[in-house]
What we know:
Strand content: 25-35%
Distance between the termini: 58 Å
Shape: elongated
Amino acid sequence: MRREVKRGRTLLVDGPASVDHFDGTVEVLGARVEEGKVVIREGKRVPFMVRKRTIFNIALGEGASFEEVKGSTIPPSWEDAIKEIKVCKRPLTVMVMGEVDSGKTSFCTYLLNRTLRMKWKPAIIDADLGQSDIGPPGTIGFSPITKPIIDLFEIEAERAYFVGLMNPSQAMHWVIEGLVRLNSSVERADLDLLVINTDGWVSGEEAASYKVGLTEKVLPDVVVGMQEADELTAILSTLKETKTLAVASPSAIKKRSRGKRKILRELGYKKYLRKAKVQSSPLNWVRVERVLMGTGNIPQAERMERIREILGSAPVYCEEMPTTIFIVSRRGSWVDEEQMRRIEEASGKWVRVIRDGEEEGLLVGLHDETGAFLGIGIIDGIDYRRRAIKVFTPVTKKLSTIRVGQIKLDKNGREIGLSQALTESPS
């Protein structure tokens, strides 16, 4: 489809789509776009701001669309924020906050592109777990930015911290720990600007406390709050020791459904699971973190016999910790509440039971002996008797640590749901 757009207007294209342009001058979020094809993934909207009359060729996929609007979709407050940031002492760190679909990622992209044009050396940490672009979903990713960008998804993570959850309210400690670690690892001498994109959890007292705590741990020079009204006032007004800038959400921002956000995450899993295959690692060669298994010992013979008696058969695996007994029952079997109660009475300990195979599909983060993140994988199974774990992953380097998350996927990178099969602990 051919479309001519006059100077001073913006073409908004919702993916999946591809756009070619020629005979004109175009910018996307502060980046000058050379002639050639721009591919827009499903669930994303790209604003093509026309600086000189331009002819577009647009190819739309299923459910895609476009519209033309007058003027720029960049709010004037964004330009005001750039001016404020520009005069700050370098290197500096800018943290961006806002609700889901408030324009945080677009602002981060715009800030990175504008500072590149000023000959700055910028980088980004993406800590938006559920909609991460730098690194796989469920991780916090870091990358320096060396060229203009239209979509942060194009950038490969140079370093990442695996969280293994999408909801920050369920993983506050790990998010703060990961963000602090990545922030501390950044060599400031090589940068002028570090942009930190955060998640969209900002409503309510707990969310506000979490965001304030995040700021106090990371100590950014500037916090930018994206808001349509005054939804971030309570957070920004609390940050007395930090420069804060309130900016407007773009009027052209597209609100995405849960289904669209899920599709974007699945594109992220697929990107980082390309060329994956099943690899087996003996459990005495790798450390498995965030699980009950491997933290205790096989019960003594008398206790093991009592467990067999109550269950009616020997479990696939059993391990005893100071306060917990972890049991893996056979596939297809069922351990009812009465049996669990009897084991708890006999042992004086809390009992956690899963079925053999229940761990399959859990997302894991893979690390080398230095703790560096190598990539993600999916548990293909655990052989409890032979003490081996099988992981579907493209990582070929030697593994030292497997960190288990609670996101469950199939091998095509589609989300099945959440599971605490290996990670649940007593409240």
